[in-house]
Write a structure and sequence with these properties.
The structure is a single chain. The chain contains eleven helices and no strands. With 217 residues, the chain is mainly alpha-helical. The longest helix has 25 residues. It is elongated. The termini are far apart.
Length: 217
Amino acid sequence: MTDQTDQTLSDEKTTGWRGSREVWLAAARQALIQSGVDAVKIQPLATGLALSRTSFYWFFKDRKALLEALLEDWDAKNTGAFVDACAAYAETISEAILNLIVVFQDEALFEPQLDFAIRGWAHQSDGVAARVHAADEVRIDAIRAMFARFGFAEDEADVRARTVYLTQIGYISMQVRESVGVRMARAPGYVKTFCGQAPTDSELARFHARLKFDPAL
């Protein structure tokens, strides 16, 4: 057999009938979101995936390793989305705020239900609570730096950053449900509240395009 065939067979052995690291992690994430951290257990996950319990150990040392991977995945995606959005190119502070609001509204970038579940888990674990606090600080720092980039004084940048972030965390904590139309209609008002400057029509048009929203419909 060729080296490529050998590699294919090897891949099938480790990611086929045993699943894959991503498959186990996705199942754990869904269990966490739906039922909390106590539901993230190896045997129930294996049953739900129709895989053997021993398959799990090809990808994770133990349940503790799986839980750590969940935290790392959450931080990389959700906190990373904030940092990336705040550093993204913008000509004005209002456009920068819209870049950030895209994150709030696009679950491919930021998963609010996962954030909610992790915060629930933090009530049961001092270690997780510390991770959440650290992530919150990184996110606030990124927003604060965004305001500072557009000339806001340190104190004002800090207060505005906290206003933006704590508003979003309030949405998550209260499990607010809004239609897309309502969220989009409120966006210009939020931008003006957050930074004191209303977005222009062209900025709103680009914002709508990124979220594939047609205000005429």
